[in-house]
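Reopening this one. Same input as before:
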Amino acid sequence: MLKIAFRSGVVAALLSATMLGGVPSSYAAGEAAPAVRQVPPSIRVVAAERRELVETLSVNGTIVAREEAAVGTDLNGLTVLELNADEGDVVKKGDVLAVLDRSMLDTQLAQIEASRAQAEANIAQMRAQIGDAEVGVRQAQESLDRADALQKKGVATEAQRDNAVNALDSARAKLDSAEKALAASEAQLAVIDAQKQNVLVQIGKTELRAPADGLILARNATLGGVVMAGSAPLFRIAIGSEFELDAAVAETSLPRLSSGMKAKVAVPGLEQPVEGSIRRISPEVSQSSRLGAIRIALAPNSPARAGNFARGEIELVRRAGVAIPASAVMYSGAEAFLQSVDNGTIKSRKVKLGVRSGDLIEITSGLAEGEEVVSRAGTFVADGDLVTPVRIEATGAVKP
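Same output, byte for byte:
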């Protein structure tokens, strides 16, 4: 009973204090209440730390072959007899990819060989006629010489000498005709040889060979199919099996890029990104899109496939520096500020920013390593405010 009565008295005293505005009844008659100590509000702070900072630029694009080779033929109407390669095969320069029917070309070659033999026979005949004509010229010349000698002696008449002159002219005409016929036969032989060479070249084209080492991307040839001149290539080859990311970059970012910069290319379906580097930067920017094209060469034997969509992260800068969370920075126009905490007092500082790396940002001047700043600036406090710093540990725990 005594305990119950005591508790009831305590409750009554507390109720009385509450009704008097939180002051116990013993002070309500005019006695001074003791001063209540106010604690500054708590606010999270973070210390500036020296870290390795990597700034990257994200780009999107498509995986393409660095260089492509097309394998086709300018022959018309030939049938595919053999197929020795398919999509995905790695080939060497000179490998026979397909064989076309050459029977018609072999027939043409046989006809040309026969024409050549006939031309050679004609040449031999012409050379024999030239020999006869040369003998006739010598005989006619000898007859003319005798006629001249006899005429000088007064034995031969002028008519006899004229006959000898005419005979010499006729023999010379026959020799000239034979020589021209020989030249014509030799020219005909040269034409036949050219035709033969052309047929041999066409026969060589019936074996479709790889023009370079590489990976076959596409095969349009079919066994038994008839090839047509001017049709699509029968094979497409990625030269050297080298692939690249063909991406577009905003014109404002192009000046920061240079050949050789490292990049990581993420391809859908691959757990790990593919290593790469910038190989080429287009010197021209599209007037319509204001984008410039770049090529990121992928590491050899990468699992990326031509046509894949991919995302690249280009490493612009990598260096060590003093960094804080980006949320700790506030801006006034083009100038950046931090809210540092010195002995529990908020003080704004003007700083210069450097590399941005994820959620971190580099402070190049205005803040030293180890100094503490408000982790989320400009939200609840202003210059001169007193605060109770609450430090954020690396583990995520909060430490007063």
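So the earlier flakiness isn't reproducible anymore. For the record, The first strand starts at residue 42 and ends at 47.
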